[in-house]
From TrEMBL:
GTP binds at residues 151-156, 289-290, 314-320, 340-344, 409-412, 464. Keywords: GTP-binding, Lipoprotein, Magnesium, Metal-binding, Myristate, Nucleotide-binding, Palmitate, Transducer. Residues 29-63 have a biased composition (Low complexity). GO terms for biological process: adenylate cyclase-activating G protein-coupled receptor signaling pathway; glucose mediated signaling pathway. Residues 1-107 are annotated as: Disordered. Mg(2+) binds at residues 155, 320. SUPFAM superfamilies: P-loop containing nucleoside triphosphate hydrolases (SSF52540), Transducin (alpha subunit), insertion domain (SSF47895). SMART domains: G_alpha. Residues 1-24, 75-96 have a biased composition (Polar residues). Gene3D superfamilies: GI Alpha 1, domain 2-like, P-loop containing nucleotide triphosphate hydrolases. This is GPA2.
Length: 492
């Protein structure tokens, strides 16, 4: 590993426990399973030695053995009411790029099958992998690599893992995010203002220098379109004052947001013409997904006694530079050693060759980026960039024996944007309209098309800012990890 896997990054310390040989581990695991099987055979399902609850669990296990899951029987599963679910098939369609065939969305957030890249689906296991791993009485630490392009939600997944498996954030930790949240607010509004200057400068009132007969007095009157003023609605001086305002990340959390700047930001952002501009022009400039959230909550954030909430932290964008690692206790003696790496183009060369021995890759893609452009290159579609990155990962020799969990993230933003920003505008071969199921299946199909190596792909639709959704999805990911671990050990 060397310099490739440090905490931003020099060296990652391995477990201090002495490693057992593979042969010794397999012998212990096989003995544990055989012992458990003999114990089960000595007791009949109706034996008085079993507690009533154990009898019921055993009967349910016998009934489920060899049966298919509900989503394997049905081709018509859809999203739940919140649009948060998992995909039952990694190709999401039956030979159609528009998701019109079999394979639907499962409302319970679990995936029992995976695509091998050629359209076939592997059989589900007959033994619950979590229970089987617990019976083996062996601790496992698995290496999970968290990949994806910039702003795909990788770091938000890490934050959710901290909430779910490390007791969340203390008040002090929340407070440390305050200057970063302030900076996110300013980045959001500055991106909008700069885009207006570049793409629709007529929305800005001409500068008035106070001299009689200036351009401000002789400009053509604003034109009226659909009953609204379309020109000269934004004050020049206010825009410049906001652009000049800086949040210093000096390592302290004592900064207070200037209330006069907050007022000007709200006036700018809530101007109807600005909202209209953002809807129709957002595909032409870089826009942070949390812009609406921070602008809506600006009055609270700008209060002198402001302390960030957990939701604020989840919405906060902090660029990941380098490689960071975290260890999470998942229960059942499973520990996930997760590596979060930078997703921007400049960061990728630091990690693509560093991880040739990982158990699982979690690849995050933002569904909502289909109509957005890169921060680094404003004429490059962000979804196309994610597909190209996925291509380089799944077909890399470093990951030839690695399973991939694909998080199709930001389903909430995706569902909203489809109503006013057609997917077919940016991907002409898509013909499913604004149907969220068809649109998500199409994007999944695009990713599956580049899986020439035939890796197992386990897709999930996610909303990384929703803790309950990530808890559900990570439970399914845990089963995937346990199943793969048992297969590697020769137990299933």
């Amino acid at each position: 590993m060397g310099s490739c896997t440090s905490k931003d990054t020099s060296q990652v310390n391995n477990s201090s426990k002495p490693a057992k040989s593979t042969q010794s581990k397999r012998q212990e695991q096989t003995q544990a399973v055989n012992s458990q099987q003999k114990s089960q055979q000595s007791q009949q399902p109706g034996s008085s030695n079993l507690h009533p609850n154990q009898q019921q669990q055993q009967q349910q296990q016998q009934q489920s053995t060899g049966s298919t899951t509900d989503h394997e029987k049905s081709n018509n599963s859809t999203f739940d009411n919140n649009g948060k679910s998992a995909l039952s098939s990694a190709n999401g369609q039956a030979g159609s790029p528009n998701g019109d065939g079999s394979g639907g969305f499962v409302a319970n957030g679990t995936v029992a099958s995976a695509s091998n890249g050629n359209g076939t689906i592997s059989n589900g296991q007959t033994m619950n992998p979590v229970d089987a791993a617990a019976k083996s009485n062996t601790e496992h630490e698995v290496k999970v690599l968290l990949l994806g392009s910039g702003e795909s939600g990788k770091s938000t997944i890490v934050k959710q893992m901290k909430i779910l498996h490390q007791n969340g954030y203390t008040q002090e930790e929340l407070y440390e995010y305050k200057p970063f949240i302030y900076k996110n607010v300013m980045d959001c509004i500055k991106n909008v203002i700069n885009a207006i200057i570049d793409l629709d400068p007529e929305l800005i009132k001409p500068k008035d220098d106070g001299i009689d007969g200036t351009d401000a007095e002789v400009q053509d009157p604003p034109e009226v379109v659909n009953g609204t003023w379309r020109k000269h609605v934004l004050d020049y001086d206010s825009l410049n004052e906001v652009l000049d305002y800086e949040i210093l990340l000096d390592g302290t959390n004592d900064a207070v947001f200037d209330p006069s700047i907050a007022e000007k930001i709200e006036q700018i952002y809530n101007t109807p013409e600005v909202k209209d501009f953002m809807i129709h022009k957002q595909g032409q400039f870089y826009l942070i997904d949390s812009t609406e959230y921070f602008m809506t909550n600006l009055n609270r954030i700008a209060q002198p006694d402001y302390v960030p909430s957990t939701t604020d932290v989840l919405r906060t964008r902090k660029k990941t530079s380098g490689i960071f690692d975290f260890i999470f206790d998942m229960g059942n003696d499973l520990h996930i050693h997760m590596f979060d790496v930078g997703g921007q183009r400049s960061e990728r060369k630091k990690w693509i060759h560093c991880f040739d021995n990982v158990t699982l890759i979690i690849f995050c893609v933002s569904l909502s980026e289909y109509d957005q452009v890169l921060l680094e290159e404003n004429n490059q579609n962000r979804l196309e960039e994610s597909i190209a990155l996925f291509d380089s990962v799944v077909n890399s020799r470093w990951f030839a024996r690695t399973s991939v969990v694909l998080f199709l993230n930001k389903i909430d933003v995706f569902a909203e944007k489809l109503q006013y920003s057609p997917l077919e505008t940016h991907f002409p071969d898509y013909t499913g309209g604004n149907n969220i199921n068809k649109a998500a299946k199409y994007i999944l199909w695009r990713f599956n098309q580049v899986n020439r190596s035939g890796l197992n792909i386990y897709p999930h639709v996610t909303q990384a800012t929703d803790t309950s959704n990530i808890q559900l999805v990570m439970a399914a990911v845990k089963e995937t990890i346990m199943e793969n671990t048992l297969k590697d050990s020769g137990l299933i």
